[in-house]
Design brief:
3 helices
Length: 72
């Protein structure tokens, strides 16, 4: 846990993340999950790009800094 201006934030333990990677690898799904992850964040960056320089800049800046929020 880390204290942030807007409240505490919790991070995934490295051991838990490593366990998840190993299970995905064993299931033969690691490459697919990594590709989907990259695709999602690439699309998010493209969507955010134009909105970060306009009337929605403040909203998008806030959402991109709060990863539990879903962009419109």
């Amino acid at each position: 846990m880390t204290d942030q201006p807007d409240g505490p934030r919790f991070r995934l333990l490295e051991s838990v993340a490593a366990y998840c990677v190993e299970r995905l690898r064993e299931a033969g799904e690691l490459d697919q999950v990594r590709a989907r992850h990259a695709e999602y964040y690439t699309e998010l960056a493209v969507r955010a790009d134009s909105s970060l320089r306009g009337p929605e800049q403040q909203l998008w800046d806030w959402m991109l800094n709060h990863p539990t929020c879903t962009p419109p």
